[in-house]
Structures are given as C-alpha cells and as structure tokens.
Amino acid sequence: MPSFRALLRHLFVAPLAAVFVSGAAVGAPVDIVDDQGQALRLAQPARRIVSLAPHITELLYAAGAGERVVGAVQYSDYPEAAKKLPRVGGYSAVDMEQVIALKPDLVVAWKSGNRNAHLDKLRALGIPVFINEPRRIDDVAKSLAQFGRLAGTDAAGEAAAKAFRARHAALVAKYSARPRLRLFYEAWNRPLMTINGEHLISDVIRLCGADNVFAKLPVLAPTVDVESVLATQPEVIVASGMGEGRPEWLDDWRQWIRLPAVARGNLFFIQPDLIQRHTPRILDGAERLCGQLEEARARR
User: Fold this and answer.
1) pLDDT per position as a tens digit, 109-128
2) How many domains in the chain?
3) Which residues of 90-129 are buried (b: 16+ CB within 10 A; e: fewer)?
4) Residue 232: CB partners within 8 Å, gap ≥ 6?
5) Separation CA 177–CA 174 (nearest Å)
6) Is residue 159 part of a domain?
7) What's 28's DSSP letter?
8) Residue 171 counted as domain residue
9) What integer is the mean pLDDT of 193-218?
10) Any idea what the Cα angle at residue 282 is, between residues 285 and 3, rounded to 5°?
C-alpha cells in the first residue's frame, strides 16, 4: 500500500550508423528544450534511461521507449513490464548510487517531485537530465512526442501524441460547454488536501464543465479546512485517495446534510492512477469524471 508521501507524487550501445529505430537514426544528435526551458543536446538518442517519477515511466513506455528504460523509482507500476525495472529509490528520495550504477545516458526527472540537489549532482557527473512538468492535458501529448525524440522512437511518440490529442478533442467537444458545476476535489483527508487551478487535475475539471472551488489558491496542492470547504458550497465532491477502492472518509461529508453535494448525492470517487498521473490514462479519468458530472447535472 503506498504511503502518504506517495500521494504527493500523484502528484513530483554502440551507435550503428545504418540502423534506424522507429524512423530515427541511431547516431543522429537530439536537440530539445525541457519543461524548465533548459536546452539539452544528446549526441545520439538515449539507450539507457532512468525515470525519476512513476508518470514519467508510464509516458516512456507509451512513447515506445520502454526497452530503453533501465531503472525507475518506486510505484512505477504501469504498464506491467515497468514492475520488473530495477528501483532507484522514491521520487523524493532518489538512491543516487543505484542511478549511477545503471550507467544512464539520460535521466528524466519531475520538476515538482525530485530534489534539485539530486539533479545537480547528476549533471555534475556529466549525466544529461531532462525535466518534465505537465500542467495541462495537452502537455501529456507534448511529453509523449518529446520522449519519443529523446529515445529515438519518434514515430511511436508522435503516433501516441496524435491519438491522445484526438481523444482529448472529442471530450472537449462533448463536455466543455455543459452547464457549470462547483466542484471540490479531495486529494486526501488528513490533512485535508486539494489542488489549485494550475494543477493538471483542474484542467480535467474544466474539460468536464466544472469549476474548481479552490482554483485561486497560490499553492499547487494546498491544505484547507472543513470550514473553508463548507463556505464554497460545492455541488460535487470528488475524492481520489491512494488505492483502487473508494475511500471511507469520503462519506464523512454526509454529516453536513445541507451541503449541496451531500443533499443531491454527489459524492464521487475516481481511482487516483486515472486522474493524478500525468499520462495517457488521464483521459480515462476524465471520461469517468465527465460522466459523474452528467449525473450531478441531472440532480439539479
């Protein structure tokens, strides 16, 4: 069972000139800018990649680069093949010795989750570091294309990005103009945690035609109190938690019988891996949320 710290993540070869991998020449240099605005140049596509966040691991596989990944952090559990990767600690407590022992030619890191001290040490050792930080749904597609370039699986990465954008556009067309609902997203109960308007989950909420009641808070994943939630009078409360099952603490809101979300029976759950990870599965979570909000609109 993942720890509370894991929740904050849910947030964090020898070249062969004549060989082509998914449309990219093995020896071709890669010039790219990461999500922190830093330019990165690889002499050739990476062949030994270490992932420092579960969502990065999943994105690498989705971009056709799974065979290039030689190590990953704890909870990198999707797809199934990722479970067999050597572990290099957790996203916030990276085992630097394990990373170095794997002799990576690229480390892909998470701006919000990994410690700068770890990344600075890797750079000092001459290991290229690419920073990933998706904040909008379309950033997932961007990441897929970027990871394909980094690993030399350009065709697979671009195809995955194109399919993701097409599915996203279909959801936007179907739900974004629906009557607005006021929604409180409960990431955790003790402490009571939510997300602000800059978080990827808020982009999903907007996609489905709702407004995050704490969108204006300055912190990406802030703690709030019960009184502030009651003051916003949400029509819908959505919880995630840390497991596949609906958290029992979602029902704690039932004591507030005059709260619109409670009075109308709009207490919903979405499996965290489907809405808290910055991966193609975010659209699975979006479809579930959009469906739940249609139920809520019918109860107005």
Assistant:
1) 999 889 999 999 999 999 99
2) 2
3) bbbebbeeebeebebbbbbbbbbbbeeebbebbeeeebbb
4) 182, 184, 213, 214
5) 8
6) yes
7) -
8) no
9) 97
10) 85
Output phi, psi for 52, to 5 deg.
-110, 25
27 class by beta-carbon count within 10 Å (0-12 exposed, 13-18 middle, 19+ buried): middle
The overall pTM is greater than 0.85: yes
pLDDT at residue 242, rounded to an integer = 76
Per the structure block, which two tokens stand in for 156? 């697979």
Of 76, 155, 156, whose CA–CA distance to 108 is shortest? 76
With cut-offs at 50, 70 and 90, classify the pLDDT of residue 202. Answer: very high
How far, in Å, CA of 145 to CA of 152, rounded?
10
Who contacts 138 (Cβ-Cβ below 8 Å, separation ≥6)? Answer: 165, 168
CATH number at residue 88: 3.40.50.1980
Tell me the mean pLDDT in the region 270-280.
94
Q: Is the pLDDT of residue 247 over 80?
A: yes
How far apart, in whole angstroms, are the C-alpha atoms of residue 148 and residue 161? 10
